[in-house]
## 1
Amino acid sequence: MSKVTAIAPIDKAGLDALIAKNRENLEEQKTLRVKTVSDQRMRSLSYARDLAPFVIDEPPGLLGDNTAPNPSEIVLGAFGSCLVVGIQANAAAQGITLTKLEVELEAHINITSAWGTGELAKPQVGFSDVQVKVDIDGDASRDTLEKLVQHANTWSPVSNTLSRPMPISVSMA
C-alpha cells in the first residue's frame, strides 16, 4: 500500500494571529481592486495588486482565441478556490490533516443574447444554477469532513456573493 501524502497545511500560528487580529475589528472592510484592459478581440488582461496580469478569453464558439478561461469560468474558479482556502483554514484550525482536496464546479448558463448584442425580449443571462462536488480525504470522519465543507461554504465570500443580490454600480470614467 502506498503512503498517502498530506496536503501542506496552512500555518496554524499565522492563522491564529489572523483570527485574533480580525476579532479586534469585526466591522473592518478591505477594498479589492482589479483593472481589466482589452488586449485583442475577446481577450483581456486583468491586473490585481502587483501581480502579473491574468488572461481572460472566450472559446472559438464565442469568437475568442481560446487562450484562457472565459469570464464565467473565472467566476467558477474563484468560487472553487475560495472553498479550498476555507476548507484548508478550517481543517488547520481543527487540527485535521487533509490528504486530498479537489473541488469540481459545474454551472448552466444562457448565452443566447450574445453579450446583449442579440437583445432578447427579456435578458436571461448568467448562471441558472451551480453544482459543486468536493472530493476530500483526511484524518477525520466523513461526517466531520462534510461539516467542514458545509462550514466553508457558509463562510465563503464568493459563495455569499454569488448567492445573494448586492448593489452594483457601473459608470464611465
Note: Helices lie at 12-24, 71-93, 142-154, 157-163.
## 2
Amino acid sequence: MQSLSKTEEDLMNHLWKHEKAFMKDLLDSYPEPKPATTTVATLLKRMTDKGFVDYKLYGKSREYFPLVKKKDYFSKHVNGLIKNFFNDSASQFASFFTQETNLTKEELEDLKKLIDSEIKNK
C-alpha cells in the first residue's frame, strides 16, 4: 500500500467521516480558509490513482468513497513506524508512546485496561 501525503491524509479523514461525498460536501467539511476546488480535485485524482479513493458518476458529478478503511490505513502505518523507528520492538514503541505523549494518569489506566483485555483474549 502506498502512503498518502499530509494533505491527502487530511482529505481522506474528511472522506472517512462522510463515508461517501461529493466535492461540495468535502469542501464544506473544511474549516476556513477552505482549499480551492482545484486543489481538492487534484488531491482526489492523486488518491484515486493511488487506489485509496474511487467514485460513482451521477451525470457530471462524482460521488467519492474510500477504498481503504481508516483502521487498516493507520494500523499499517503504526506497524511500519514500529518496524522502522523502534527496531521492530513494540515495547520500545510503547515506552516512547507512554513517556513522550503527556498522557494523564487516567489515560494510562485506560491503556492498561485495553492491554489487560487483549492479554486475556490471546
Note: The mean pLDDT is 91.
## 3
Amino acid sequence: MKKILIVDDEAGIVEEVKGFLEEEGYVVRTADTAKQGIRILEEMQPEIVFIDVKLPDASGIEVLKASKEKCPKTKTVMVTGYVDQNLMDEAESLGRDSFLQKPFDLIRVAEEIERLTI
C-alpha cells in the first residue's frame, strides 16, 4: 500500500485530498507545519509527499530539502496558490518531481500520483 504525506496548512484542502486518497486505498498522513512534516517524513518514508510552498513556520523548500536528503526515493510535489518564480526555480533545482497550482481538482492529483509511481 502506497504511503502519501501532505504538508499543507489549509485544512479544507488537506481534508478533501486526504479523504479522496484514502478512498483510493492510500495510507495518508498530514502535517500543517514544516517541522511536523519533516518529522513525519522521517518516520513514514512515504512514496510521495505533497508540499505547500508557504507554511506557517518555514518555506516548503525546507521540507523539500529534507525529503531529498533523508528520503531520496520519495517523489515530491510542490503545491502553491500563487506562483513565485524564484521559489519554483529553487524547487526545481533541488529536484522537485512535480508542481500543482491551487486550486486543483482531485482527478489532477490522481493523475500526478499515477505518473510519479509508474
Note: Strands lie at 3-7, 27-31, 48-52, 75-80, 98-101.
